[in-house]
Specification:
Low-confidence stretches: none
Order of helices and strands: EHEHEHHEEEHEHHEEEEEEEEEE
Mean pLDDT: 93
Helix content: 10-25%
Radius of gyration: 21 Å
């Protein structure tokens, strides 16, 4: 009977993962992470304890607050100050859930670690490949930075399942969080209000000019941390709909344009991760530029630690700071952080 750790967040997905693995005969250890300060984490930990009791497994609480702040929260604020819109969940998966928590699981004698993510992992020709699922909740986008060693030690019991099926399973098992609402997009940002969160962290940026694509001054902005590419609301009145096209932290400007200007034919990405050997020649694949976007056909041009993307059709709101994830036949073959959009 293999020993496996399950990251219990206090939500229904991880609870169902633990229940399924226990019924499959694994020796299951629950691990709950304390990432938030003070009472913000207490309710989730309390729910995780109830889940562990219902499933009949031991639970360890791993306090990573200092590590989480240094590696996730502080870079989150720095990205906004640099004029980018970050996706901290991707970094958290690599460094926290399948980094520090995986290391802790190994120390406890676990051979693998499992979570409630919706994705699947397959071993093909000796390489572990992340594959998107048919589920509408597919989360492969958030896992693209995981390396081969991490992928080799991960079980994803919910692959191919839908949320309604998960909730039915949890109810049948008598798990108290069966009807618990899905977690918010960024776990440490209350009410998904990132501007208020940055303010609470003492992070702000000075006012500056709103300009058009020719550099003409159209008005004033109240700090680039308050804007993101594609934004329409809060720009002021210009007699016609206007959209944020780009943010420039060095010049402290927000560039806006008319409807249509928010589309871009391509992008450049850094912080590149490849599932297998890094490609050297251009190739065609599908690229997803944010979690809720649909993958789009494109030409990918590798260049050392970066790659460029040329879409077959221009894409809306290509946003620096977000991730461009590359898919081939539903497999994640690589990705990187968007740093510039093409004009």
């Amino acid at each position: 009977m293999k020993k496996i750790a399950v990251g219990l967040s206090g939500g229904v997905d991880s609870a169902a993962a633990a229940y399924l693995l226990k019924n499959q005969g694994f020796e299951v250890l629950g691990i709950t992470l304390r990432l938030k300060p003070g009472s913000l984490a207490d309710k989730d930990i309390e729910d995780a304890e109830k889940v562990a009791q219902a499933v009949g497994i031991p639970l360890e609480i791993l306090d990573l607050r200092d590590y989480f702040r240094k590696n996730i929260i502080e870079p989150f604020g720095a990205e906004y100050l640099a004029g980018r819109t970050p996706n901290p969940c991707i970094e958290c998966n690599k460094l926290i859930k399948f980094g520090a928590m995986l290391d802790f699981a190994k120390e406890k004698g676990c051979e693998k670690i499992a979570t409630g993510h919706y994705a699947s992992i397959e071993c093909i020709n000796g390489k572990y490949m992340l594959r998107k699922t048919d589920s509408s909740k597919d989360q492969s986008y958030f896992l693209f930075r995981l390396g081969q060693e991490q992928l080799s030690m991960i079980e994803l019991p919910l692959a191919g399942m839908e949320k309604t099926e998960i909730r039915r399973l949890a109810k049948k098992a008598g798990i108290s969080v069966a009807d618990k609402k899905d977690s918010q997009e960024i776990c440490f940002v209350p009410d998904d209000d990132y501007i208020a969160f940055l303010s609470s962290e003492g992070i702000s940026s000075p006012c500056g000019n709103i300009i058009d694509t020719q550099g003409n001054i159209l008005g004033r902005h109240n700090g680039i941390t308050n804007y993101t590419v594609g934004q329409r609301k809060g720009l002021g009145a210009f007699g016609k709909p206007m959209f944020v096209i780009s943010l420039n932290a060095e010049n402290n400007t927000v560039t806006i344009g008319e409807n249509g200007a928010q589309y871009s034919p391509g992008l450049t990405a850094d912080r590149v991760s490849w599932a297998a050997d890094a490609p050297r020649e251009p190739f065609e694949a599908d690229v997803k530029i944010r979690f809720r976007a649909k993958e789009q056909p494109a030409l990918i041009i590798p260049c050392g630690n970066t790659f460029a993307v040329k879409f077959k059709e221009p894409q809306r709101s290509v946003t620096p700071g977000q991730s461009a994830v590359i898919y081939k036949d539903d497999y994640v073959i690589g990705g990187g952080r968007i740093i510039t959009r093409s004009d």
